[in-house]
Predict the structure.
Amino acid sequence: MLINTTQPARRAGDLDRTFGLDGVTVLEGSEVKAITVLKSPGLQQGKIVGVLRDGSDFKLFRLNKNGALDTSFGLDGYSRWGFLGTAGTSIPTGIRELSADKLLVTGYLQEGSPATQNYPAVARFNGEGTIDLLFGKNGVFVFREPLPTGLHSSDIDSGDIGEAALAGAIIPASHKLLLVFNSRGLWPYNNQGLLIQLTPNGHLDTLFNNTGYAFFQIEQQSTASVGLIIRDNGHFLVAGNSGNRGFVADFDATGTINPLFGTNGFTLFNLTGGILRLNSLLLQPDDKPAVAGSFTTTGSTVKGYVNRLSPSGHPDPDFNAGQALIVERPFVSLQLNSAELDSEQTIVVAGELNTRGLALAGRITAQGKMDSTFGIDGLTATPTEGILNYTNSVTTGDLRQVLIAGKKAMRSAVSRYLG
């Protein structure tokens, strides 16, 4: 009897079974919160670094290109740390490569019993996982400034209370660090959009708004800021949510709103019949900002949402004919949790079918359509074996490979899909 040993052709969007163990690397801790691929020239280029939750602290880790733990990093591949030594719970939400020998972890510090106070926090590490003692206080900056008294503080409905997040970018000319904090309804900075600027050595930069930070709200409504991008002209874009809407705002380098962007400095994304929650901001070629998130209908069905603007903050006619792209699958809820640009500057997204806890990734063309060359109609297939259950982060590697991170069966995990 002849046995057919022909392997099925591998295509973009298939789980890369050469990565880790059959496509997945399972790690210590409860969930991976963020990953990125190292891009600086050198021996570590192309490796994957990430940060995961581990009890009241967090751990950095580094993987080789094949998904194996890089035991030359930290202690056997891990570096355990926290935002405040002993007290409080350190929640990481982001990691980025600053240079060939510097890494930055963003997140927040929870204090109180039960945890009722949530303070933005940043830690800088050397490339091999040791804390950089030249940054902030013993390598860490924690924001504890008082809440403004003159801003509206309406309640955020209970459905919007969730995890905080801190996102940031490096200002190229000065190497200062600009951050946005999303309190997601958590004290003490609930209801406020918050911008923070740090000096290169990790202290508040008082040249920014005279204090180093600025609170803001949109139309006196509860506001959460979720993403930040610095433009070539020195301005910076902030994305977030206010009420049931998403927004993008353009600020100049001093933190002053640019009234020439959108309408009086803001572009609002409205969808009737539900709640829109953005979570990602990207800058595509030609200075066009793109946003991603999820839309919950009045019937509680969740759908992915992606949109792009012109440089002036108006709908981009070259992206899905100037309309938002709704990412969905029949009969199930589909939520998008993160987005990134690949090597060809196209948008990749990650999320899950949240009624079944099955992770997925997707790719979107420059024209604002699902990429039919990736997976099934632009989304990865979701068999029950070999994939993550929930995702927090997406990044891209060589040959447009898509890496997603989160958890699988309550364990930290990273998986890779072919590009």
Summary: The two ends are 37 Å apart (CA to CA). The longest strand covers residues 89-99. The mean pLDDT is 89.
